[in-house]
Design goal:
Length: about 725
């Protein structure tokens, strides 16, 4: 496609310059076959590029992804997502060559955040897993780094906390952090705006006494009728008394390949000529000195990996026939690839658009009839799904400050999957049932509404659909030739599908046509009777597609209509199906001790107090209990503890509103008080002074297993 686009550009210019009346002949000669120009081995670099998505964190001890609101704040303050990668910006700076070294990549990271002195602070690279935990990356090449990152962003963890003052006052901080001998600058600027919003500015850069280069520049920034800035500049570099290199240049630019690129100044200590020093201007040796970025509007967008026109030669040979002319599409019709959006961003934007802040709806729930209570609640005439649900469990006195809502949606998704009667198959890999009575009763529609309601308010999704079914529901083509027929819920269909897979010879095919030909034909493959052995894999995929998707098409449509009833949520899922894979399929991994501990924080008493000593005794026993769970020597799981503390069995996609914590209480004499939790505050309270792990395990296990509800133990 790049060759086609380049050929079109060349043809347009050639045709515009032609004065010959024979347009047909000119067009034919313009579109002659093009061949790539030969290159030497030394310059034959790898053409592979990688779309890098960076995110700069502010804290050196960051172990969990920040909440979406915190991420947005970081991006606004110069951290987070770099300016060239903000949503809606198309920039070639988001792409790097896989042939570059890790040293060059580190330089690229520093230049992506020009207001932050990352080269002085230092940083490490990390990726985020399914549980939003950060894992540091270890790689020796760019290819290794890309494989380690996967679909995650590249998270940059500074080796020292980046203070807010440094971010908000970047210019002052850059001057304060400049090493000795570095260039200093003084600037004066004036701006005036006319009725169209045009502005003009002038700036002067002076030379200090250390012999740093001096420059004077005048620039005019104008705005066209569409509000797109255009710029022209003339600059002169003078030589100081210390013998620094000098050069003069005047340049006018209508368009450049990279917006906001920076040029490193010549070091003050350099005394050689500019021509000799150009060869040492390697990108890895230079960092951004705080040069402001200038953005402009291009006449049209270009692919980041476009080949240059010099990379092709016109082949004037007459070996092609006159009838071999091909029709080329226009550049305007080309659809550029859409970058995958983070799931947290999609859900956060959805909530901002549809969920009403400050408005609540009281939802009364009978715990023993949770699914029935939920369906009755959303079926009321006055029900408004945009309002935040305030959950009241009958017979339980807990106020819903977040905990009851998290527990309700978690239990609701279990009920929808197991007791509603519209799903079948193994747990975590289910299919829609073919039930016409349920279809007439609009059960699939109700299930879609319940799932959308949960997702819209930060609750979990079903996380149980078969991955192939989910792809087909999203309008994608699944690789059904490798489908595992053992997961099919009907044993008879399992055996028949296995029989198709075992067909290897002409005799097997003849027997298959005789025994199962009519059944396969009823699945929508009437060509089974004339099929060959080579077509068996495709026939198998058609049979699987018929059984898991086409047969239940009406059920699937009713289910998706139910999800679309709440803010057209299924349309959002369909358009971003890759991002929503963790919501609808079972990609969960069990919590580990390290990931569970990373979720928690500890509320200790001040050091040196008696309470602190007893709290550390309890935490040591707590660590031993966690070892028992990790070694599977107890019925307790990390998910059980997380449910007891927060009401959720995993970290939500949008994160918890604050970090869950462990606090302490003093055990009164003669009273056996069990550990307890506040799911709203997400705090687990443990007794001080527990020195035996078995004692803590017993009372903790009793609290978790015997809990009957809020304020009921």
């Amino acid at each position: 496609m790049n060759r086609v686009f380049n050929a079109l550009d060349v043809a347009r210019r050639d045709l515009a310059a032609q004065r010959n009346d024979n347009v047909l002949r000119v067009t034919r000669s313009t579109f002659r076959r093009r061949r790539r120009a030969p290159t030497t081995g030394a310059s034959n670099e790898s053409a592979g590029v990688w779309r890098v998505r960076l995110f700069l964190l502010a804290l050196a001890d960051q172990s969990v992804l920040p909440a979406p609101t915190e991420s947005s704040r970081l991006s606004r303050e110069g951290l987070g997502i770099p300016a060239h990668d903000q949503q809606g910006v198309v920039s070639e700076r988001s792409y790097v060559k896989l042939s570059m070294t890790l040293l060059e990549f580190n330089s690229y990271v520093c230049q992506s955040f020009p207001t932050i002195p990352l080269n002085m602070i230092g940083f490490t690279l990390a990726r985020a897993g399914n549980s939003r935990l950060l894992t540091q990356l270890q790689a020796t090449t760019m290819a290794d780094l890309k494989r380690s990152v996967g679909r995650s962003r590249v998270y940059i963890i500074p080796q020292a906390d980046i203070p807010t003052l440094l971010v908000m006052a970047s210019s002052s901080a850059s001057a304060a952090l400049r090493p000795a001998g570095a260039p200093s600058a003084s600037a004066a600027s004036t701006s005036a705006t006319d009725s169209e919003g045009a502005a003009s500015a002038a700036s002067t850069l002076a030379t200090d006494s250390e012999g740093a280069p001096s420059a004077s520049a005048a620039s005019t920034l104008a705005t066209d009728s569409e509000g797109a800035p255009s710029a022209s500049a003339a600059s002169t570099l003078a030589t100081d008394s210390e013998g620094a290199p000098s050069a003069s240049a005047a340049s006018t630019s209508a368009a450049t390949e990279t917006a906001g690129s920076t040029t490193a100044p010549t070091p003050p200590s350099t005394s050689v000529s500019m021509d000799a020093d150009v060869e040492s201007l390697h990108s890895a040796q230079w960092v951004n000195a705080g040069t402001p970025e200038v953005f402009y509007r291009r006449s049209r967008l270009e692919q980041p990996n476009r080949n240059s026109f010099n990379d092709f030669l016109i082949d004037d040979s007459d070996e092609e026939e006159e009838g071999e002319d091909e029709a080329f599409g226009t550049l305007e019709s080309y659809v550029f690839p859409v970058e995958e959006v983070d799931l947290a961003v999609l859900l956060s934007d959805f909530r901002k658009e549809f969920v009403s802040d400050g408005l609540v709806s009281n939802i009364c729930i009978r715990r023993k009839k949770l699914l029935e209570s939920a369906i009755k609640a959303i079926s009321r005439v006055t029900f408004c799904w945009n309002n935040s649900p305030y959950i009241e469990f009958v017979g339980e006195d807990g106020d819903d400050m977040g905990g009851p809502q998290r527990e309700f949606f978690r239990l609701l998704m279990i009920e929808v999957q197991t007791t509603m009667g519209i799903f079948e198959g193994k747990a975590g890999q289910v299919f829609l049932t073919y039930d016409q009575a349920a279809l007439d009763g609009h059960k699939y529609f109700q299930a879609g509404r319940l799932i959308a309601w949960s997702v819209a308010h930060g609750g979990p999704c079903i996380k149980a659909l078969d991955p192939s079914l989910y792809q087909l529901m999203c309008g994608q083509e699944a690789q059904l030739e490798q489908f595992d027929c053992s997961v099919l819920p009907d044993p008879d269909v399992q055996s028949r599908a296995k029989r198709i897979l075992q067909c290897k010879t002409a005799e097997d095919l003849s027997a298959l046509q005789q025994d199962l030909g009519d059944w396969i034909s009823e699945c929508g493959i009437p060509g089974i009777f004339s099929a060959t052995i080579g077509e068996i894999p495709k026939i198998y995929s058609y049979v699987v597609k018929h059984y898991i998707f086409l047969r239940t098409a009406k059920m699937v449509n009713q289910f998706t209509e139910g999800m679309n009833a709440f803010g057209n949520l299924w349309d959002l899922v369909r358009n971003n199906w890759i991002a929503f894979v963790p919501c609808f399929t079972n990609m969960r991994t069990p919590l580990t001790k390290s990931s569970f501990k990373a979720i928690l924080k500890y509320e200790y008493s001040p050091r040196g107090t008696n309470h602190r000593e007893k709290e550390e005794d309890t935490i040591y026993s707590w660590e031993l209990v966690l070892n028992l769970i990790e070694d599977k020597l107890t019925e307790l799981t990390f998910e059980d503890l997380l449910i007891f503390i927060t009401g959720a069995d995993e970290v939500p996609t949008l994160g918890f509103p604050n970090k869950p914590s462990i606090d302490f209480y003093t055990q009164e004499a003669g009273v056996r008080r069990l550990p307890y939790a506040s799911t709203c505050a997400m705090t687990l309270f443990l007794p001080r002074g527990i020195t035996e792990e078995q004692e803590l395990h017993n009372i903790l296990n009793q609290s978790v297993k015997d809990s009957l509800g809020f304020l009921k133990v």
